[in-house]
Write a structure and sequence with these properties.
Layout (H helix, E strand, L loop, with lengths): L4 H31 L6 H8 L3 H5 L5 H17 L8 H14 L3 H13 L8 H24 L9 H21 L6 H12 L19
Helix pairs in contact: 1-2, 1-4, 1-6, 5-7, 5-9, 6-8, 7-8, 8-9
Protein name: TetR/AcrR family transcriptional regulator
Pfam families: TetR_C_6, TetR_N
GO molecular function: DNA binding
Length: 216
């Protein structure tokens, strides 16, 4: 189908604007990951993105808005790796997200720093992280319930405790990985934990494609 001259003219500036917006988001992610929310300024982010402070303001009106979009975008990316399945497949999908994130160290650094800072209720990312933990805990607990119902769970602990234990282990391993990536194999340790409570859990990552769904 032919594209009219007016459509092409409109699409050009839009594509350029979208590219600038993405540069700002990447710059924001890097800045927040290195210095945290409070020590990062919009001027810092504008410099990293290679635009003026005024230019940044055309896309984001405040630092809080920018942080919110950075976190939402990361959550959307993670959702691509969460299967719309049940039981062991759901547990494997969460493990796949954690392993995939090691390909983008800045994301792990960002979340490790912000999760500590955002424990204060007034932090702009506090509610985001609270809801994310609640959603993940519920998602994992449901998966453990399904594994238990199938007779494949090797634990007397309640599913909520198993879910919280996995999340604590995952967060702790990510911090250790930031300190020493060579000696911290996140996938191996998380898989060992899963196999200790679910003996039939896969010993190696499943190569089948993952289908996107929501954690909440």
């Amino acid at each position: 189908m032919m594209t009219s001259e007016s459509e092409a003219h409109t699409r050009g500036p839009y594509a350029k604007s979208a590219g600038v917006r993405q540069r700002i988001l990447e710059a924001g992610m890097q800045a927040f990951a290195e210095a945290g929310y409070y020590a990062t300024s919009l001027n810092d982010i504008a410099d990293r993105a290679g635009i003026s402070r005024r230019g940044l303001g055309h896309h984001f009106k405040s630092k809080e808005e920018l942080l919110t979009v950075v976190l939402d975008q990361r959550q959307d990316e993670d959702a691509e790796f969460i299967r719309n399945t049940s039981g062991i497949d759901s547990l494997a999908a969460v493990l796949a997200v954690s392993t995939h994130n090691t390909e983008r160290p800045g994301l792990i650094q960002l979340y490790s720093l912000l999760r500590a800072d955002a424990t204060a209720a007034e932090h702009p990312a506090h509610e985001h992280h609270r809801l994310q933990y609640d959603g993940l805990r519920l998602y994992l607990a449901r998966a453990f319930d399904e594994v238990r119902a199938a007779g494949e769970l090797n634990s007397d602990e309640d599913s909520g405790t198993l879910a919280s234990t996995f999340l604590a282990l995952m967060d702790g391993l990510q911090i250790q990985w930031l300190y020493n990536r060579a000696s911290t194999d996140i996938d191996r340790v998380l898989r060992a934990y899963m196999r200790s409570v679910v003996p039939s859990f896969p010993q190696a990552a499943d190569a089948r494609p993952l289908v996107a769904t929501s954690l909440t």
